[in-house]
Design goal:
The chain is α/β, with parallel strands linked by helices. It has a 3-stranded parallel sheet, with no helix packed on it. The protein is elongated and about 45 Å long.
């Protein structure tokens, strides 16, 4: 949901006043492959918040990544659930059920 509350606005403003950086994902509701780009969700849409979109392994904006003028940077997001050829492969950092993630997690916690 993209609902703002006064409490959220207040806590973001307080953090920014205290020079605390706030980083937020832009949201994953877009469907760019069919021409739908959803607006940035809160708190990423708030002034002063660092808004992060997603890109694929091909350095293209991920089809599911929301868009708007608030975007400050993009980070690896993978191919989404469909992992189409155009999007590239999913990345384990965003899909913790990957066997590679589980293997790494076992190594770290053993």
């Amino acid at each position: 949901a993209n609902k703002s509350t006064q409490a959220l606005v207040d806590v973001i403003e307080l953090a920014l006043q205290k020079n605390i950086s706030i980083v937020s994902a832009t949201g994953n509701e877009s469907a760019r492959l069919v021409g739908t780009i959803s607006p940035i969700t809160v708190p990423a849409a708030y002034p002063g918040v660092i808004a992060v979109g997603a890109h694929t392994q091909y350095d293209k904006i991920a089809s599911y990544s929301n868009g708007g003028p608030e975007i400050d940077l993009v980070a690896p997001g993978g191919g989404g659930q469909s992992a189409t050829a155009a999007e590239g492969q999913q990345i384990w950092s965003t899909w913790p059920s990957y066997p590679t993630y589980e293997y790494y997690q076992k190594r770290v916690t053993s």
